[in-house]
Amino acid sequence: MSPSARPSRTTPPVSDAGARRIAQLALPALVVLAAEPLYVLVDTAVVGHLGPVPLAAVAVGGTVMSLAVWIGTLMAYGTTGRAARRFGAGDRAAAVAEGVQASWLALGAGVLMALGAQAGAGPLAHLLAGDPIAAEAAAGWLRIAALGAPGLLLAAAGNGWMRGVQEVRRPLLIVLGANVLSAILCPVLVYPLGWGLTGSAVANVVAQTVAGGFFLLALVRAARALRPRPQIMVQQLTVGRDLLIRGAAFQACFLSATAVAARFGVAAVGAHQIALQLWFFCALALDAVAIAAQSLVGAALGAGDADAARDVARRVTVAGGVAGAGFAVLAAAGAEVVPGWFTSDAGVHAQAAIVWPWFVGLLPFAGVVYALDGVLIGAGDVGYLRNVTLASALLGFLPAIWLAHAFGWGLGGVWAGLGLFTFVRFGAMVWRWRSARWAVVGVGR
C-alpha cells in the first residue's frame, strides 16, 4: 500500500516530548545501537588474540563491511524520518508502508553486495592493506561476512519504520537476541572448533541473517500490502539522496584513514582498528538520543507543532554533550587497560597510546554533533547535513590524513584529521540549531 491509501488514524504522543518520553525512546535504542558495535568489539578481542595479522585482516575487512552498515544506517534514518511524519499526522498504515518499500530496497541492495563481494573482496583488501598476507586473510573473511548483507539491511529497514511509529520493544529484543547468539558463537567457532578467522565471519553472518528474518516477519504481520511500489521507492531514494552523499563522505574518510594507518605498519593499523571500533561504539551509543530526536521531531513537525520540535532539539543537544563527556571520562580512565583487552602485542599498545588523547578529547564535541544530526534528519533538513559533511571532509579530514601519510606523521596525524572533521561539523551544526530554520511543519519536506 502507498501513503496515499486510506489512512488508519492514530494519536501519537507528540504533545508530551519531555525528558521522560525521550528516555523511553532513547534507552531501548541505546541497546539496539550498542549491540552491533559491542559484538564487533568482542569479535576484535577474540580475533586479536590470534595475532597481529588476523587483527589487521579484521580491521581491513571490517572497514569494507562498514559500507553495508553505512547503507543500512542511511536506510534506517531516511525511513524513520518519512515514517515519523506520517505517524505524527495520524496515519500509521502509511508509516508502515514506508517500511515495506524500504525493505524491498534493502533486500535488493543486500543481495547485490553479497554477490559483488565474491569477486571484489581480493582487490579491495589489497588496496587497503599494506601487508599482502593480511590482505589475503582479509579477503577470505570478507567473502564470507558479506553473505550477511541482506539480513543486515533488512534489519536496518525494520528498525527505521519501527522507530518512526515509536515502537521500541521488538527491535530491542530482535537485535539483542541475534547479537548475543553471535557473541556466543564467535569464540566457540574461532577456538574450540578451530575455524580461526573463518569462525568470526560465520558468526557475523548468523547474527545478521537471524535479525533480518525477524524484522521481515514483523513487517509481514503489520503491513496491509507487501508488493513493491516502484514510485514510492523512487521517492525514498530521492529523499535519501542527500543522506547518501553525506554517508559517502563519511566512508571516504574512514576508508582513507584505514588505508593510511595500514601504511604505517601492522601494529599501527591494529591500534587504529581498536580505537576506531571504540569510537564507533561510543558514536552509536550517543546516537540513541539522536534516534529519539528523529522520531519525536518528525512526529511533532508532521503534527504541525514546531514548538515541540524545538523543545526536543534543545533537550537532546544538552543530553548529547553530557553523554559525550561521560564517555570521555570512562575512556580516559581506561587508557592503560582497554587496549590490553584486544591484544597483548606491545607494538599495538604503543600505537594506541598515540591515539588515545585524541579519542578522549573529541568525545564531548561528538556527543553534541550526533544529537543534532538526529534533530536535522528528523526534520528532513538533510541538504544542510550534506553540505556540512562534505565541507568538513574535503577541507578537514581528507587533507589532514593524506598529509600525515606524505610527511610520516603517523596515527597522530590521522586522528588530528578526525578532530578537524568533528570541530567543523560542531560549529556548523550548533549554528543551524540556533537559527531554527530547520523547523518546517507538514507531512513532507
TrEMBL record:
Q: What highest taxon heads this organism's lineage?
A: Bacteria
Asked if the Swiss-Prot or TrEMBL record annotates the protein with the keyword Nuclease, the reply is: no
Q: MF terms per GO, please? A: antiporter activity; xenobiotic transmembrane transporter activity
Annotated GO CC locations: plasma membrane
Cell compartments where the protein resides: Membrane
What InterPro entries does the record tag this protein with? DinF-like (IPR044644), MATE_fam (IPR002528)
Q: Which family does it belong to?
A: Belongs to the multi antimicrobial extrusion (MATE) (TC 2.A.66.1) family.
Q: What is this protein called?
A: MATE family efflux transporter
